[in-house]
Every structure is written in C-alpha cells, then in structure tokens.
Amino acid sequence: MVTSLALCFDAPMQSWGTRSRGVIRDTTSEPTKSGVVGLLAAALGISREDDDAIAELARLRLAVRVDREGILERDYHTIQNVPTTKGTGHRTVVSQRYYLADALFLVVLQGDEDLLSRIASVVDRPYWPVYFGRRAFVPARPLLPPNGQPVAAEAEEILGSHPWLETSKSLRDSEIAKSERVGLRTAIDCPPRTTHAEVRHDHPLSLADGRRRFTTRTVLVDQLPLTDSMITTGDTPCS
After folding, report:
1. What domains lie within the chain, and their CATH numbers?
2. Which of 65, 146, 68 is nearest to 109 (CA)?
C-alpha cells in the first residue's frame, strides 16, 4: 500500500538554496529535497551527524505543487571585522541573499507509513524549531491541520485532488470566476529515464557540519489544472 503525507509550506519569506556558499546565496523556485529533509530532521530531533537517519528521510519521495508562485527578492548583507585569509587584519564582506516572498507550496511526502506517521505526530510540535531555509523564515500557519495523518494514495493523486491552499479571498474569488484558470506548477521525484526529467543536485547524503554531501535526483516539472473541486469556500487544510 502506497502512503503519502501532505504538508503546507506557507510563510512571508522562504529560501531554498542549492549554491549557498560564499557571498551569493541563491534560492530555487520551490522547496529542495535537502531543505525538506533538514526541516523534517529538526522536527524529529535527528542530529545532522546521523547520516543513516538522514538517508532514511531522503528516501521519501518528494512532490511539490506550487499554489502561489513566490516573488524573487534579494537581501543585501554586510559583515564587518571578518579576518582576512592571510590573518593580517580584518575586512568587510558584502553578500547577496535571495529568497522567495509570499510563496505557498503543497509538499507531499510518499513512502514508509511508520516514518510518515512519526513525522505527522511531531511536525507541528517539533523537537527543534523548523524554518524554511533560514532561521528567521518560520511557518505562517501549521504544516498540518489538527489530527492530520498520512493517507493511502500516490503523491500525484494528492497533488491533483487536494484543496487549493490559497487563503487570499480576493484571489480565490477571482479564480472561481475564471473560465480558464492558470495551471499550478508541480515538481515530482521521478525515475532517471523519465521523458523531460530534470536533474537536481539536492539529494542529501550527509548534512553534518564540515562534510555536507549531496547527490542528484531527477524531477519531472509539469502543470496541473486548478479545478472547481480544488477551490473550496472554507478552510484550506493540508490533509
């Protein structure tokens, strides 16, 4: 039996970097596998040094539906009194850090039922604080509704049927009135030989400080229609 768990990633700011070393810190346009695994590890109280537990989380299949595309923004940072590489003085370092503003994602995890049940039991009562890429980027609403649990379904089935997570009344009303709606972008883990698959270098092998290692995964990017059945008039829970 295939089991999946749907989570809501909603925040004023989110950052999902893949090339975040040095003075330029990037962000992708949807959550990365490494970022999601890191968040789940924090919720479960799993140490960065525990490579086996990190690998177990990384084996979960990841599927993302973009319910609201974020706006790419940039922070300008300066850090003073940074030692020079020669050790002969100090300097000021300027960095540019990108993030997504007002993005909203339906994140679906597919895999081991026991692991997904453990995640569901702690994700809104985490062992360590959870955040979306930076410590200041905290969730704007619960990742799961009360008593949210894994369900027996494929990730694609949940992406295609789960209620739209948008909370803006004006936007929801405008979409309800449209005869032709813009599709919702999706990014789903897929086998390497899938037609039109994209390669992402964000599958974590280790998240330990000083020895972080990643490998590639393949993702199929597509679009789903925003149907009448997905646009509800009440609350928009994630499970």
Report:
1. 3-70+102-230 (3.30.70.2660)
2. 65
